[in-house]
Amino acid sequence: MTRILHRDPKQTLPTAVAGSGPYIIDAEGKRYLDASGGAAVSCLGHSYKPVVEAIKAQLDRLPYAHTGFFTNEPSEALAEHLIDRAPEGLEKVYFLSGGSEANETALKLARQYFHEKGETQRRWFISRRQSYHGNTLGALSIGGNPGRRAVYEPILMPAHHIAPCYAYRERQDTESEEAYGLRVANELEAMLQQLGPDTVIGFVAETVVGATLGAVPAVPGYFKRVREICDQYGILLILDEVMSGMGRTGTLFACDQESIAPDLLTCAKGLGAGYQPIGACLISGKIHDTIVGGSGAFQHGFTYIGHATACAGALAVQQTIERESLLDQVGKRGGELTAALIERFGKHPNIGDIRGRGLFLGLELVEDRASKQPFDPALKLHAHIKHNAMQEGLMCYPGGGTVDGRAGDHVLLAPPYIIEEEQVAEIVDKLGRAIERSLTEVR
Ligand code: PLP
Question: What value of ipTM does the predicted structure carry?
Fold first, then answer.
C-alpha cells in the first residue's frame, strides 16, 4: 500500500523507473513516449547527459548555500543568461522552486512596487476566466478555473476576471481577428473603469494559454492593446510564461512573438526541464529600482530561493537549448507535428480546432464540428483519452471541458525539443488510436 497521498488516490499509477531520450520506462519495462513533457516540463527529454553532469558537478562543489548569507555562481550566471535574452526592461531575476511560487512573487513585488510609491490604495489584480496560475492561495485567487477554486473560494482574495482571448469559441463570424482582439482587450479597460483604475495593481495573463484551454495563442494585436491599456492607466502587466516560456513556442520567451514586454514575467517548467525544480520571476528595472530605492528590501523569501544546484541544472538546460539550436528545432518539429495533426485530424468530425505555436499544440474535441457543441463534461472524455494514451504508451495532457461549460475537452501536446521525425509520426499514430477508442467508450 502506498504511503503517498497521490493527486488522484483512487488511480493506480505505473512506477517510472528510467528515462531514455523522450521516453519514460516503467517498472514493467513498458516505454511511454512523452508527448506532453509531463505538463510541458521535460523539454530535453529524460536522459540528457550534459545537464546531469552539470548537476553532479555542482553537488560535488556546493549543493546549497542559504541566500540570506551568500549569493552563488550558478544563480548569478543563470540570471545573466536570462536577462541578456529577456524582453526589454526586464533587468533582475528572483529564482524559486516552481511556477506557483514565481507567480506569488510577481503578485507581491507588484503590490510592494505601488506601496513604495505611496499608492497604497492599489489592491486588485485583474486576470482572465478559464486561466490557471498555480495552486498556492495567491496564484489560485487570480486563476479563473471554477473547478480548482470552488473548495477554497472563501479563503481566496477577491477575483476580477475578464474574458480570455479564445478566438475559436468567442470570435463572432462577422468579426475579423483584429476586431475580436481589440474587443476582448478592451474588457480590461472596462474592468479598470468599473473598479477605479487607481485601485488596481496589475493585469495577469498567460501569453499562450496552456493547461486550461490547450495551447491557445492570442490573436494578433491583442497583447499590444493590453500593453497600451496598462500604460494608459498606470497598472503593471504580468505575463505568466510558466508553461509557454523557455522556447516552448519557438522563441525563448513567448511574448517575443507579441512584440511587447511585460513589467514582470514568470517562467518555470522548461527552465529546469524537470532535471531540477526551479522557477523564476523576471523583474523590470523600474520595479526593482523603486523597491531598492524605497524601503530597500523585498518582504518575501523562501528557503530554497536561488538554489545553487537547481540553478546549475537550469543553466545547463538553457545553454543546451542555445548550443544545439533547439529553438530552430522547435520550429521545425512543431511545423511537422502541426502538419501531421492536420492531416490526421483536420477533417475529423469530433476535432473542432488544431492550434498552438512551436511545440505547444492543442486539439479541441467537440460533439459536433459545425455547432462546436462540446461533449457533456460528465462523460470526462479527456480522462478516457489520457488513460487510453497511456495504454498505447503515450503521454499527452488532456484537459476537461468543465471550465464555465464553455470549452470542449482538449489535448495538449508539448513534446521535448529533441524529438525526431519518426517520433512525430508515433505521437499522431498513438494519439489517433487513443482518441478513437475514447470516443467509442463515451458514446
Ligand atoms: N502557471 C501556469 C501557466 C501553469 O501552467 C502552472 C502549472 O501548470 C503554474 C503556473 C504553476 O506551476 P507549478 O505547478 O510549478 O507551481
Answer: 0.99
